[in-house]
Design brief:
Blueprint: E1 2-8, E2 11-16, E3 28-36, H1 42-45, E4 55-56, E5 61-68, E6 80-83, E7 86-87, H2 93-96, E8 107-108, E9 116-119, H3 122-125, E10 126-128, H4 138-157, E11 165-169, H5 173-184, E12 189-193, H6 197-205, E13 210-212, H7 216-226, E14 232-237, H8 242-250, E15 252-260, H9 271-277, E16 280-283, H10 288-300, E17 312-315, H11 319-327, E18 334-337
Parallel strand pairs: 11-12, 11-14, 12-13, 14-15, 15-16, 17-18
Antiparallel strand pairs: 1-2, 1-4, 3-5, 3-9, 3-18, 5-6, 6-10, 7-8
The structure holds zinc ion.
Length: 338
Amino acid sequence: MLGTVLFAPRDVRYVEVQEPKIQKPTDAIIRLSASCICGSDLWPYRGANKFSEPLRMGHEYCGVVVEVGKDVKTVKPGQFVVGSFCLSDNTCPHCRFGFQSSCEQGEFMSGAQAPLARVPLADGTLMATAQMPPDDLIPSLLAISDVLGTGWYAADAARVKPGCTAVVVGDGAVGLMGVLASKQMGASRIIAMSRHKKRQELALEYGATDIISERGEAGIAQILKLTKNIGADAVLECVGTQESMTQALQVARPGSMVGYVGVPHGVTLDAGMLFGSQVGMLGGPAPVRKFLPHLMDLVLTKKINPGKVFDLQIPIKDVAEGYRAMDERRAIKTLLRV
Ligand SMILES: [Zn+2]
């Protein structure tokens, strides 16, 4: 079988790899309907995350079950499934508390930029649809696995509520999904921070009411002006840099929450400033499994169209071009046809 391997920074190839097999009785093997490249795949691709051996890439997936281990009860061969990029048993205390991304048995999915993938902890990670979904819904179902689930978590952690004003920092795919989620949760004003025309347009389509193209101090000043110097009721931080975190914290009103889902790279926080601001923070890898039933329903009933975030669709054999396009910001997110 062929699969995607990152050998060194900027050296990603579609090469011969070992075909996945059932290793534990709780595993499932799925045939992917489509795969994609995540913004977080760009960290090792750019050399920002060190790795000592070649990496099997890909953690976003949906597809048809081909085989299950003997202990798997909730999914069976032939069913179409979507799963979280965070693998979970969905039974431990953290899972039952709604934080499947901190599962006691948890690990991260890998190897999904390939035609077949092994999903450990299948019962606690996957969810099957009632019937085979139509092809045109595949991009949106794939999006649930990480990018939509993560944007949703940002809005959930920021406690977006009906009628509130939400600010979304970051116009990458996750930020755009944060806009979609805020709209679904009933925010009446959604301020998206974006400097790119194509991304601004998609943000408006997903429900943004205002676009701020300034960054840093100027961006903060614009948001304070829009909120009559009060600040936002909910802030979604979807980047993970010092600049984006500072922007998020400085536009959040006292008593509000910052939901942060951009993996922090070089971010430090000032406890004195946090104390004075009375702003709360909740973030981390998204517990997508918690949101999976609701998000699948929204997609299958066509209430949302997160799949539109894939503005580049290419055959998986051209995966290297998919990485380049995202690295150079020519594409928001790349879907890989398998
Ligand atoms: Zn668990």
